[in-house]
Design brief:
The chain is mainly β. The chain is built from no helices and six strands. The chain has one domain. Strand 5 and strand 6 form a beta hairpin.
């Protein structure tokens, strides 16, 4: 099961494009992993679905903890990838 990131609760949107979405928030995401981005109840947005975390860095260190900022690239939803590993597994000895 993929981790879920809720817009408005976990993160806020800085930029929302057709290929990627830029986010800021208090949750820590792992680059190379797929997350499910969902709209929050109070702040519905048209963009939602699986996205691979491309970059995720500390933006500010404050007294309430770190605030992160990063970019997620929209990920094909019709994939067998389950978000548990950074890349889909390959059989040993399989040719590329």
């Amino acid at each position: 099961m993929r981790p879920r990131v809720v817009i408005g609760r976990d993160v806020d949107v800085i930029r929302d494009g057709p290929d990627e979405i830029e986010l800021v928030g208090r949750v820590r995401l792992r680059p190379g992993f797929v997350v499910d981005i969902t709209p929050g109840a109070k702040r519905p947005r048209p963009s939602a679905g699986p996205a691979m975390v491309q970059s995720w860095r500390i933006r500010v260190l404050g007294s309430n903890g770190p605030i992160y900022r990063g970019v997620c690239r929209w990920y094909p939803s019709a994939t067998p990838h389950n978000g548990d590993s950074p890349l889909p597994s390959r059989e040993v000895g399989a040719k590329p």
